[in-house]
Amino acid sequence: MSTQNMPPAVGERLPNSALTSSGGQQSTLHGEISAPITIVYFMRTANCPICNAHLRKLSTEARAGAYLDARILVIVPGDASDATKVEARHPDAPLSIRASQTAHAEAGLFVKVGFQQSGTFVVDAAATIALSRVSTVPVGGFDHAAVALVIAEPASPPRT
Question: Rounded to two decimals, what is the model's pTM?
Answer without folding.
Answer: 0.92
